[in-house]
Amino acid sequence: MTERVLIIGGSANDFGRETEGDVATFQVVDVIKKYGHEVVIVDDNPYAFTTSRHDIQVIEKALTIDNLMAVIAKEHITAMVTSVGGSTATRLGADILKLMGNGAPKVLGLSLPVMQATQNTKYLHERLQQLDIPTVQSRLASDVSEAFDAVRDFDLPVVIRPIAPMGQTLRLQVTDIDDLEEAVETALNRSITHQVNIDKSIRGHQEISMLVIRDKRDTTVLIGGVEDMDPVGIHSADSIAITPIQTLPDPVYQKLRSAAFKVIRGFDVIGLLEVRFAVDPKSDDYVITRVTPYFDRTAALLVAATGYPLIPVVTRLILGETLESVKTPVIGANHTALLEPTMDHIVIRFPIFSFGDFESNGVKTEHRLNTVQKSVGTTMGVGRSVEEALEKAIRAAHFNNRNFSPTVMNALTDNEIIEQLIHPRDNRIFVLLEALRRGYTVDELAEMTKINAFYFYKLRQINKLEETVKNNPWQVDVVKLAKYYGLSDGLIARLWHAKYEEVRRYRWDNGILPTYKAFEPSAGEFEEAANQYYSTFESENESTRLGKYTALVIGAGGFRLGDGAAASYVMAMVAAELQAQGIQTVLMNNSPTDLMFMPQLGNKKYYEPLEISDVMNVIEIEQPMQVFVPGNRIKLINSLRQNGIDVQVIAKEKYLPSSIVDDASRTIVNYFYDGQTIYLIGMGSQSNDGIILDQSVMTEALWDKIPRPQMSSETPGLYQMLIKHQPSHNDEPLMVVRPMPFTMVAFLDKVTGIDWMRLVIRYMLNRQTHVEQQFLAQLKSLQWRIPKAQLIYWHADFEEHMEIDQMLDNGRYAIGATYHLI
Amino acid sequence: MTTRYLILQDGTVYAGEAFGAPATTFGELVFNTAMTGYQEIITNPIYYNQIIMFTTPTIGAAGINHYADESIVPSVKGVVVREIAEISTNRLRTLSLNDYLKRHNVPGISQIDTRALTRHLRETGIQKASIVDQPDDHAFDQLRAMVLTNQQVAQLSTPKAYANPGRGANVVVVDFGLKSGILRMLSDFDANVTVLPYSATLDEVANLDPDGIVISSGPGDPNQVPETALEIIREFEQRIPLFGIGLGHELFAIANGAKVTELASAHHGMNHPIREQITNDIIFATQGQAYSVDNTSIKDTPLFVTHIDITDNQIQGLRHRDYPAFSVQFFPDAAPGPLEETQAFAEFMEMVMARRGGGVI
Lengths: 822, 361
Hints:
The complex is a heterodimer.
Chain A: E1 4-8, H1 20-34, E2 38-42, E3 57-59, H2 65-74, E4 79-81, H3 86-100, E5 106-107, H4 112-119, H5 121-130, E6 138-141, H6 144-154, E7 158-162, E8 172-174, H7 180-190, E9 196-200, E10 206-214, E11 220-228, E12 241-243, H8 250-266, E13 271-279, E14 286-292, H9 297-306, H10 310-318, E15 346-352, H11 355-359, E16 377-383, H12 386-397, H13 406-411, H14 414-422, H15 428-437, H16 442-449, H17 453-471, H18 476-484, H19 489-496, H20 500-509, E17 515-518, E18 532-536, E19 550-554, H21 564-580, E20 584-589, E21 604-607, H22 612-622, E22 626-630, H23 634-642, E23 647-650, E24 666-673, E25 678-686, E26 690-694, H24 700-705, E27 717-724, E28 735-739, H25 742-752, H26 756-764, H27 770-777, E29 788-793, H28 798-802, H29 810-813, E30 817-821
Parallel strand pairs in A: 1-2, 1-4, 2-3, 4-5, 18-21, 19-20, 19-22, 20-21, 22-23
Antiparallel strand pairs in A: 6-9, 7-8, 7-9, 10-11, 10-13, 11-12, 12-15, 13-14, 15-16, 17-18, 24-25, 24-27, 25-26, 26-29, 27-28, 29-30
Helix pairs in contact in A: 1-10, 3-4, 4-5, 14-15, 15-17, 16-17, 17-18, 19-20, 21-25, 21-26
Chain B: E1 3-8, E2 13-20, E3 25-32, H1 38-42, E4 50-54, E5 58-59, E6 78-80, E7 83-84, H2 97-103, E8 107-110, H3 114-124, E9 127-132, H4 137-145, H5 152-156, E10 162-164, E11 170-175, H6 180-188, E12 192-197, H7 202-207, E13 212-215, H8 227-236, E14 242-245, H9 247-255, E15 260-269, E16 273-276, E17 282-284, E18 287-293, E19 303-309, E20 315-320, E21 325-328, H10 343-358
Parallel strand pairs in B: 3-4, 4-6, 5-7, 6-8, 11-12, 11-13, 13-14, 14-21
Antiparallel strand pairs in B: 1-2, 1-9, 2-8, 3-9, 10-12, 15-18, 16-17, 16-19, 19-20, 20-21
């Protein structure tokens, strides 16, 4: 039977919601269509790549229950997918099931209980108890004596929370029995119902995630496990995360694996489920703290790390296939999806914090890490040792922030070091390194931070290595060692007070060259058909030049504040168009959640930091005809050009100009430039709330009257002119012409129905035909897909996440947006 | 920091850093793709005569724990890794892997491109290898001249019978290079176990009046195991529940007329899907095998296939058509590895208890 499948989108990008959902959605659509089903997708994220597809029905409506119910009725929806739209889609899917009851379309792979357990901790605990699986011990108390009873059963420490709190929520950690009475009374007084919740504290326990999948025949497979370096108490997204799991002994590992299977069975999930554990390092006892039945950052990391085609496999499972019937061409010819991935490399996910971006612009914020997510992006480093993976991850996170300079670390007093060891901040890793330098022992630090000693030995090794490099300039063995453990040419150059080019040449002259290894799920046991690589410095290189005529596309890297998702969208468009032009495309990036890493894009991929040395190493292997780089990587662009590389810059303006200063809205005029002539696309306006694009404002007379600015470069691209409505106090001129911000590129695509960046690429490649020329000549009569639409910046809860309580310049900082038709 | 070398019989040389004991060692080089359980693996007696290379890059981070021993001393001849972890010895981590190997005179070598070597071995199959101070002609001459014993079972099996008492059923384990996991599982059922040497006679077994017999796992070529072992299987499978594991599975097959042949490329890991033929269930288990029961040779035997490795269609389990006897190629005791197939012991003990209830032989 042909299904009409509704995919519930994830809406705006936000904390904890980068582009991983979009990556998954695109692949889900491909599989569903292959089975002959029809796809309807509801999403209002202007940066979504999937909704720019022309072969599916896209409904651009806000993700509300009413809108979805209307779509279900009108479009005769028979099935829903909620596992690619993050927590939003899971919540909405659950609401639909509850409201529509038996009349609801089935949610593919999921049942109501697991969707509820995702959102409701108490419900999760109850279900887990029914399954006889350990969970956080928790009890209600309505007076002090009941609280004492609970503590007698649980042991200290406990966390006391008021039920239905008046005002702000409250969490009181009690470690001493003498403090219990006061804490309970405080909490009782804050509770409207005069009740408190008492949880056994799991602070300091080790956080482990396991991702498991299951088919309708009840076959289960462990895709992988991820270990957080930091213990419970720091949000998992803000912790450095490592896969495969390094520090668990096999019996504990197997215990968690079995428990994860028990949970996915218990909730009767078909497809994927991430199960999160807190493991007590003293006893190896565990509790389950969370279940996640959708594709999130952990799944994205494991897909990158294992090379296992998770999304295509899972989609086939929810459509009724079995694991045994799904072929996976990644390994060998005849392998099915039935293989537990095993890894012969280490992948480290590293958070990107943006406190510095705020502070350098005078916005006050709080650097301390806690259970609320602070990071806005993710990078990953891959290597054959923890040291190498960590060095590469730190490099990929691209610290240029003054907070992290060695001088700042030197300036910290011993007391400040202790303070920051106990109350971690965004510079966590550097404080740990500095503490080791100052003579703290591994065991002291492990005790203080609850980070496994194993990692401190690794950090100590990194310190030693830097010391060795610093003290032994221009020594071949030292360079070999440094490269073996992942230090970049740039870092070696800095330690030697030399130039990067000199170090690179020295390395070349001495034959110290990178070797690339494939990502594949069998650790070399089977012949692989992989096309994804990472670098290391060992004996065997597996990556050879892809072809004579290739293009290399450099990704936008980890997300920061502002247009991360839009940049990901634009660079994905670049890659897609190059491929459409029949050009063999090599992609290079380091954010596991980025659109660029979807299998549909690129012929070959490198998961690498994007410093000049890393990029040059890939260029030396691939010898691409052209290299495409997003315009914000000015340093990289300059360095590449100095090395004689033909760089095509995807020009961008990082920020929409601040409109918060004079609180004025501006008129914007958008142009396409083919390298010689500039073409008018259309007009709109923008303010601190968002952007409006409106075709109707463009009258015949206006069309002719609007200036066509003179362009100085010959690079094709998208540009815009900003016109202020009134002169302002500062020096900003009335009219500015500049590259179009990626935010606008994405929104303009959605509104006009034209993939503008694809057009730019065709001109960059000089592959335009009369079709394109004709199209540009008739832009005036182009009927926009949506005549009038508004983009609204998403109000990410910066107050909750980063303790910022002032109005923000959205054009600069907003990490997501929605749009709607007007 | 001492540089040492891993040399292979085909002339391949890898330089690496020494850890463990500084001895020169010889053995067959095999790779293992498990990501956990290094201590269980290096103490599993099936690796007697072998140098183990781990494909997962960091080894040693969980230290050495008494509960992870599969025999009293490590059986491997050498350990090859990319990185050896430094650890703090506290709590359960009583010893580092490095110190443990030193104590037991087992050399290790780290900083090896284990992925390159794995890809090499998957083409060449098992090779003789040596960890040496200098990769010179002398070392290669020695390596090529070295003949590995085919008497592993004789060297590993207990010389004398011993008891592992319990209050439950009377189980005899015939030791062909027994790993502790098997005894641990039997202890879970409170079985009263007697471990007999591999050379036990029919009378010695019969005198113990067993309710069940386990033919243990062990190292090497099943075709080299003396005929007496096969006689025990043939004699007792008819009336006493019998469970073969690993080498014991191979012997069970041979005793019943099937053929066991050497694999072109050994398989050591825990990520292959195994299908239970009757239920169609898929399970994962630790596997370590260089030999396999020949599929075509089953036809004319009283055996039928119960488990198959889906990746290569190898037989992973057999059962007798008429008698209460069965066997598995993989390790049902886990240790290390997935726990799902520990139920094989439950099944065996159920057969044992049923027979016990039935009374006389």
